[in-house]
Amino acid sequence: MKQLLEEIMKGINELFMSEAHFRSYLSRCLQQSLPQAIVNEEYPYPYKNKTIKVDIRVENGGKEHYIELKYKTKKQATENMHSYHIYKDINRLETISKENGSQNFFIFLTNNERYQKVHKDTDYEQFCLSEQICKGIHKWIKTELCERSEEELQKSYPAIEINNDYKIEWKNFGQSQEQLKNFHYFIIAIDNKA
Questions:
Q1: Tens digits of per-residue pLDDT, 58-117?
Q2: What one-character DSSP code corresponds to residue 172?
Q3: What region does 42 belong to: left with phi over 0, alpha with psi -120 to 50, or beta?
């Protein structure tokens, strides 16, 4: 499945207007590539006493795959919040994998190169996306610039546990068109390893 996702990402030649547009495009490509599969968008999944919507669910040959996407442009400049939510999505996909044995995927597409940099001495230092996502508990760090107390931070943004290490391999996206050449993406495969 990861190879298919990579092929789809390499073949995209259009600029997306939103994350929903990206999700619909990817769902359509998956359905065309796997005509026998069932592909659902915003699939309702029971998660920790509530129901969440997973961006894409693919059922193919008796196997399920859940895919979460993030699409962020330079205009959406709150890297700290988006990075936190990426870790949150990965934690959810790990939980789903542990519950049902599925291999799941996280895809992040952006034209904001700041995501690829290390952010030392920042409140979101532990949510870095430069090279890898490390196993462990990740939480906001209180810095001098942060106006919130430690308690407020933990209440608003609870710590997130990641159960495995994930290498991030940033790849170029859409080099065939001028408007796409500044975009980069990575795909993480999430298995039930823990």
A1: 999 999 999 999 999 877 767 777 888 898 999 999 999 999 999 999 999 998 888 777
A2: E
A3: left
Burial class (CB in 10 A: 0-12, 13-18, 19+), 65: buried
pTM for the predicted model, two decimal places: 0.89
CATH number corresponding to 2-118+168-190: 3.40.1350
CB contact at 8 A, 33 and 8: yes
Q: How many CA atoms lie within 13 A of 120 on its CB side?
A: 0
Q: 10 Å Cβ neighbour count for 110? A: 24
Domain ranges of the chain: 2-118+168-190
Mean pLDDT of 113-134: 73
- For residues 161 and 91, the answer to whether their CB atoms sit within 8 Å is yes
